[in-house]
Amino acid sequence: MTPTQLEKARQLVRPTLETKFHIDYQWWDRADREMEVYLIGQLCHEHQAVYANLDAKTMVDHVDAATGEVRRVPGIQHALIAHCAKQPGYVTPQTSLINAVFRIFLANGNTPLSASEIGQRLGRPPMTILRTLSSQRVYKGIRPYVEG
Prior knowledge:
Blueprint: H1 3-12, E1 20-23, H2 25-30, H3 35-40, H4 45-51, E2 59-63, E3 70-74, H5 75-82, H6 97-107, E4 113-114, H7 115-122, H8 126-133, E5 142-144
Antiparallel strand pairs: 1-4, 1-5, 2-3
Helix pairs in contact: 7-8
């Protein structure tokens, strides 16, 4: 599907509790925002210092521990998955809903998840998550996942 076709398909989706969501990286480009700059703020203090003077777009191999699949990901995302997301306090009950959902997607390599699955991971009501993610406003590029 072309980007235009994907966008039209997304607009036709009426999200339910089982609709999958993900971070739409193209949204960041269209919104003229620097995702890499934002990602640095999601790193633990140790990796924030490391990436302060490095190119956040440098690609590295990441091995999915569950599937064994090897994918090329930005080094900053690899640091988030392999280290930062495993630190205490990465997501706490005090983390805002949007930041918590965003961090879950960063930690899982942006594997699409439903509001029900996100709710289980966060211990928050799936309906609240669904209402937030399916509103007119797009938060941090989190949108319904449309295969294409």
